[in-house]
Task: inverse folding
């Protein structure tokens, strides 16, 4: 069985050597790039990259922009590994399409646990409906192959990979409450705490994207003190 390959994008050479040692200790392959342009080249040259570790502060442009560029082309999971620790930075990272967010300094065990969690989650949840390609609900269409969302008017609504996984969880269990703990785990693989508003903020962003003129009612209902649920019937179909 081939090893999962990790791409680390950071201009700190010392940290690159450290992360290389960490991931190789756990039998992952490792490649690195030291700029956004270098990351793009590495992704072209290495089509088998399983996960990207990404710093926000890069010499040619910021990692948030790079994450958005990558997300327009690939669904490869991204973990931000950065010194920027404010909650606004974390939210921006998730909105840019990241699957998790780790702040520096970090411990080897935490880094590996996050990598394993994201890989396990993304590899296991490509689609909950094997042999199905599309999901339909309240006039909306979600393509399970290319992760594209279309409104009842046929307009392509851009969603991040994180929003796709969140929507996938909701449509997989329509009219069933998805608890905040599970939502936060979908977002970042972490346990939920009452002070963490990431789950609510992510739902709010997704809810706005699911707003449509002919559907004024809210598709995503808030279940007080519990979580959220999709109030719609969902049909999974296969289209060739």
Result:
């Amino acid at each position: 069985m081939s090893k999962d390959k990790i791409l680390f994008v950071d201009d700190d050479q010392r940290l690159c050597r450290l992360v290389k040692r960490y991931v190789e200790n756990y039998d992952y392959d490792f490649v690195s790039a030291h700029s956004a342009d270098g990351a793009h080249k590495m992704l072209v040259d290495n089509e088998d990259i399983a996960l990207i570790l990404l710093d926000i502060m890069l010499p040619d442009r910021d990692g948030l922009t790079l994450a958005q560029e990558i997300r327009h082309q690939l669904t490869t999971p991204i973990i931000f590994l950065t010194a920027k620790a404010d909650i606004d930075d974390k939210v921006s990272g998730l909105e840019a399409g990241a699957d998790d967010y780790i702040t520096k300094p970090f411990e080897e065990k935490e880094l590996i646990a996050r990598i394993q969690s994201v890989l396990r989650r993304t590899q296991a949840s490509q689609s909950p409906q094997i042999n199905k390609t599309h999901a339909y609900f309240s006039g909306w269409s979600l393509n399970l192959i290319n992760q594209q969302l279309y409104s009842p008017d046929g307009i392509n609504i851009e969603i991040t990979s994180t929003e796709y996984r969140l929507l996938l969880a909701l449509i997989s269990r329509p009219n069933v409450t998805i608890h905040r703990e599970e939502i936060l785990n979908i977002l970042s693989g972490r346990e939920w705490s009452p002070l963490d508003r990431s789950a609510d903020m992510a739902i709010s962003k997704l809810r706005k994207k699911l707003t449509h003129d002919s559907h004024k009612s809210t598709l995503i209902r808030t279940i007080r003190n519990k979580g959220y649920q999709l109030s719609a019937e969902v049909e999974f179909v296969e289209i060739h």
Summary: Residues 7 and 31 are 5 Å apart (CA to CA). The chain has eight helices and 13 strands.
